[in-house]
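Researcher: Here's my situation. A collaborator sent me these components and asked whether they could plausibly form a single complex. I don't have experimental data yet, so a predicted model of the whole assembly would be a useful starting point for our discussion.
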Amino acid sequence: MAERVDLLQGTLDLLILKSLIFGPLHGWGVSKWIRQASDDVLQINQGSLYPALYRLEDRGWVGAKWGISPDGRRAKFYSLTAKGRKQLAEERTEWRRFAVAIEQVLQVR
Amino acid sequence: MDREMDEEMRLHVALESEELGRGGMNAEEATRRARLAFGDIESHKEVARESRGVLWLDDLAADVRYAVRGVLRAPAYTTIAALTLAVGIGATTGVVSIVDAVVLRALPYRDAGSLAAILERAEKGSDRTPSYPAYKDYLTAVGGPVAGIAFGHGGQVPFRTANGLERVIAYRVSPGFFPLMGTHALLGREFAPVEERAGGPAVAVISFGLWRHELGGDPGVIGRVIDLDSVPTTIVGVMQEEFNYPQFTQLWLPIAPVESRWAPLQSREVHADSWTIVRLRAPRDSAAAAAALGVVASRLAAEYPASSAHWSAVDFWPMSKQVVGDISGTLYTLAGAALLVLLLACANIATLTLIRGSVRARELAVRVALGASQGRIARQLCTEIAVIGLAGGVGGMLLAAGIVRTVRQVMGARLPRSSELAVDSRLFAIGIAVALFATMVVSLAPVLRSTRLAVADRLHGGSRDSGIGRRDSIVRSGLVAVQVTLAVTLLLSAGLLLQSFRRLYAIPDDYDTAHIATAAIFPPSPAYDRPTDAAALYGRLRDAVARVPGVDAVAIVNHIGGILPTPVEIAGRPQDGSGRNTAYYLTASSDYPRAMGFRMVRGRWLNDADMRSPEASGFVINESMAKRFFDGEDPLGRIITVHRASQARADIGQPISGPILGVMSDVHWQGQENRVEPEVYVPYTREVWPWITLVAHARYPGRVAPDIRKAVFSVDPNIPLSAENSYTGVATPKGGISFDRRELALTMIGAFAVVALLLAAIGLYGVVAYGVTQRTRELGIRKALGATSSDVARLVLGGVGKLVAGGVVVGLVGGFVATRLIGSMLFHTAPTDPLTFAMVPSTLIVVALIAAWWPTRRAMRIQPTDALRTD
């Protein structure tokens, strides 16, 4: 198992929003998607996942609904709202600028 | 919310473990890894909850649910605690609301502290109200400290309604009366200057009560014309409900229209049925104002020696005292008793809560072990107490409302400002807050302390007596002793009042109160203005009523019991101009003793011959007058001179003389506790009073009352006599409940005392029962070592006895002090009445023994094996 990388809260929000872009997922689904999409590098600390999901729900960036999972179990599914989509775009731009800036600093000889 | 999170997170763990299982791990290992990876579900939930910001609300809801469950699990404790709280709060709030409404609340006049009644004072100290001419003289002193003076004269006026002729109480007022009092009309307006002058239009301002009851509360009443004393009178205003000056007034009229043609107003001799009110510039100007008016009084004493010599000073009687009268003492006493009950209730609840807290010590220790913080536990206990408080509060509110409503009904008109009685919700809130706070303070500290003990101690040691436990039991015992003390104090007061009551009512009435019907007759003007016409009317009325079947005897009297004093001179004795020798002046017919049921002590009553030739007849006096004026000598045949006292007759003050024909027994018209004053009776034909009271003796007064009314109407249908059983109609002894202040005090304090006894008994039972449970192991060991059941009983009862004895001793001391305060309400009973002081402690000891009986029996039945089984 790869090492767990601690994620800043803002970054976690960004990843969660992105994970939902292809459709609704339940909590475990979000954590699995992020793991797979990052080739097992990013393992979400479960203690942060659900609080983050609830926070996003409070802010209106994701919506939550109880439904039936493909294997017949009851689960709470989170989906991206229109506001959430907008937020995702903004945060993505923000993140790029941030990442570019860090790289720029590290490149200085 | 909680369940959802739970479900969500459990699913997560399940899915994770399945995933791991697919990767080759066995199921058990997979589950374990998954759980580990996820971490503690509970703390995640807590974090998640906190992050959502509704943590405290959830906790509160949980607390309330827990509290309600806990409360339902211990129904006995809850019911008793809630009832105790209800009684304590309800009693206090009810009584204090009454005190507040009657005594403390401000009067509905502007700056009521600046209003007072003017009384003229004689050199030897007696008071009288000024006459109308004197009032006009006092007006010259207006200015500076005296902001204004008003005069009002009260009387009964015939008022024609749809139901016939009624009598209403009217108050004729001088110009500027309402502005001086500082009140405004509720509907319409007060008098205009043109209406307050002679020759102005006939107008009236009516009271709220009259408007509501006789005129149907019609909002269009302003401008309505009513028939008052055969004069069409226009209603210009309706007064507010709280304005009730003087008490029972139903309408106000200007004095100007009758000023010049009404004899009582012209005379300086008339000092009855009126009030002269002064408004001071400020309350502190009282002395200066009294001095200024005193100057006028001295001048009047010099200018009019016949009426005013020796009356040269002026006193003020503050409006507040005038309205409230002498009931404030009684009310304060009741408030004190109610507060004692509240204290007792607080002590009781604290005891119960302490005991319950000790019982739950283990449960609380477990919760501490499971991670509950002290703050959380304290909050939960507070919530529990608050739930009980809510239940008790509702009960208390109902009780307070019931008390207020009952007092208003049974005291009725006897209580001043009774229309303003209502439960004061501020007091109620304060009461509940005080009770809950006291309970929490007393019971939280020890309970919390016990949770700080090492948890292990609590779980293993069970109910072992530790140092902390001993301190608790001292507090408990102390609380019970306090309850006993308070109960003793209340019981002593109730006992004394009961004794006083018994003594008062053991005295038989001086006259036959149960078989008398009376009717006040006001002959209409002008048909009977001449004395001969009035006298003839009275004779016809007496004859008509005598013919009513069921009536044994009828008599005429001007007043029942004296109210108008007259100077008396005795022939052969030097004149004493000091005004000390006065007696009450009464006129009556020949059948008065038979109608009223009193007896003659010497000589005879006035007879028909006296009525036919009154100038040649004499007078009858009562025992008090014989004693005061003749002190041992035989009064029969002695010539005395009295002075005519009828205000409506022009010959008021004229001296009339005659021999004393007989002495009647003293009658306590005003009740046994008041002294009987000297009275002299004049034949009704010699002094024809403008109005009289017919007194009819009948076996069943209630049954003959309607026939009496019919008989009166058959003589003259214009005589106003209402159909009610009251002073405006034919009055008969009422069978219903009608309390005076003494009966009110007795009933309420008696009720408080009984409740106090009950509460103290419950508290005692609780403490003893708990004590026995605590000491089960100890008592079992004692039994094993050879103690008998009676030894055990003696041990338990000994403890109880010490507790009760301590409480009783302190209670007796406290009661001794407290009962001095009710001394004014006692009749022929000393505040240290030995019977009461002996009976109360005995009663309490008996009750305490009964309360402790059941736990003692349980203690006696403890087997040594029980000691081992207790854990």
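Model: Some features of this prediction you could bring to your collaborator: Residues 780 and 864 of chain B are 4 Å apart (CA to CA). The longest strand of chain B covers residues 146-161.
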